[in-house]
Amino acid sequence: MNCMTIWGFMGAGKSTIGRALAQRYAWKWIDSDTEIEKQAKLTIPDIFQRYGESYFRQLETQFLEDLWHQVQRNQPASELLVITTGGGMPIQEENRRWLKKLGISIYLHVPFDTIVDRLKRDSQRPLWDGTQLEAMKCKYEARLPYYRQADVIIETQGKSVEEIVQDIAAAIRHWRSS
Ligand SMILES: Nc1ncnc2c1ncn2[C@@H]1O[C@H](COP(=O)(O)OP(=O)(O)O)[C@@H](O)[C@H]1O
Ligand SMILES: O=C(O)C1=C[C@@H](OP(=O)(O)O)[C@@H](O)[C@H](O)C1
Ligand SMILES: [Mg+2]
Hints:
Blueprint: E1 2-7, H1 14-25, E2 28-31, H2 32-40, H3 44-51, H4 53-73, E3 80-84, H5 93-102, E4 103-109, H6 112-118, H7 133-147, E5 152-155, H8 161-177
Parallel strand pairs: 1-3, 1-4, 2-3, 4-5
This protein binds adenosine-5'-diphosphate (ADP), shikimate-3-phosphate (S3P) and magnesium ion.
Pfam family, one: SKI
GO molecular function, one term: kinase activity
Binding site for ATP: 11-16, 125
């Protein structure tokens, strides 16, 4: 099975794009946060509140390891699985290794100001605090070098979901034909 992993900061549109790719091309799609919530039977904010960030990071690594074994058992090479990550997943080196082993990685780049705008009314992201924009910008900038290690970088500013889906489909065509 071929896998594509989608990386990017909170609010970059990863989950939205994953859903749209799955609808448009009938590709399989899995969102790490949704899977972790299902397995833990808790929401992401509850996991953070009860057990803290480092426990959540362990769940992310476990998710990748389990997925890797699942993908190995599932052989149809023609099938494509889209994996949308949580924003912090590619920051840990071990996670990046799993992500790279799984397949092509795609980073959705969004300028910081757009993220601020998109997450204005968000209450589901425990690490986002719209009243602490300096600290948020530091986190964003600290993560950029890791995100830039993805195989493909898509500039998404000013693009609709459909346009980003088209850009990704073109990158995948290129990857499959090479
Ligand atoms: N291309 C886009 N243009 C405008 N808004 C978008 C776009 N992609 C996503 N959004 C919006 O941004 C917010 C965050 O999207 P989401 O998919 O949850 O991001 P992520 O999974 O990267 O955190 C949502 O409200 C979504 O509707
Ligand atoms: O950036 C992060 O560290 C996080 C991003 C979230 O996912 P989204 O990127 O989908 O918001 C979620 O995994 C968790 O709240 C932590
Ligand atoms: Mg998401």
